[in-house]
Description:
Layout (H helix, E strand, L loop, with lengths): L11 E12 L2 E12 L3 E5 L6 H8 L5 E8 L2 E2 L5 H4 L4 E4 L11 H5 L12 H7 L1 H5 L10 H15 L3 E5 L7 H16 L3 E6 L2 H7 L2 E6 L2 E7 H15 L2
Parallel strand pairs: 3-8, 3-9, 6-7, 7-8
Antiparallel strand pairs: 1-2, 1-4, 4-5, 9-10
Bound molecules: adenosine-5'-triphosphate.
Amino acid sequence: MPEAARDPIDEPLLAIQDLHAWYGESHVLHGIDITVPRGSVVTLLGRNGAGKSTTLKSIMGMVPQRRGSIRIQDTEIIDLPPYEIAPQGVAFCPEDRGIYATLDVKENLELPPRINRSGLSTDQVLDLFPNLRERLHSPGSKLSGGEQQMLAIGRILRTGANLLLLDEPTEGLAPSIVEQIGSTIARLKQQGYTILLVEQNLKFAMSVADYHYLIDHGRVVASYDRRTIQHHANDVLERLGV
Ligand SMILES: Nc1ncnc2c1ncn2[C@@H]1O[C@H](COP(=O)(O)OP(=O)(O)OP(=O)(O)O)[C@@H](O)[C@H]1O
């Protein structure tokens, strides 16, 4: 089939099948199936405790007990440790953003190792987030929530990852900053990045994503594309408990 005629869903960059995960005795994911096409933005929606963060952490190898299949392109990563998963081109931005309070913006940015040469330079990250350029020598503890989020995203762009896992990037941010994060995600998508993000803000999710998975009690209970989610927005809001 010619490249242009192919449906992107045929070319998943990330494919998760029958993923189970445990914290000790506690079985929290019960057979998750998710496909993330290359170059798409996909959201995981669901109420608190549904298993969204655990899904991202499982991809990154940060949940010690997991079973099923997680493939990045053609590589099975379910049994790999995090330091072997990152070189597959995947990076994780945690919900707490993971900014080191005593390091300044430049030091925080330059901390993670590069996994390949396609990683952005510090200058390129600062072009993407001009606010950070003005704060280059401010310690992490003095940054606003929005600046911390931009720094957290900028930091993973430096690594050279092309699959970005973002855990609630808009949480606690003012509407104007949420808008900036939305524009950044759209720009990253245009540049060819693939993004899987956890969101509770449905309006934001609908504005940035191509596909959505609704998670409840560790299972995918519904999935939507850009068009179908419009028809089910009320239903989804109810399931999010907002
Ligand atoms: N480190 C942990 N140890 C034990 N249980 C955990 C741990 N982290 C999460 N859980 C539990 O696993 C379940 C799924 O949590 P998870 O954080 O994946 O949910 P979530 O959908 O991301 O919600 P939230 O937005 O509240 O983080 C919840 O019952 C939670 O209490």
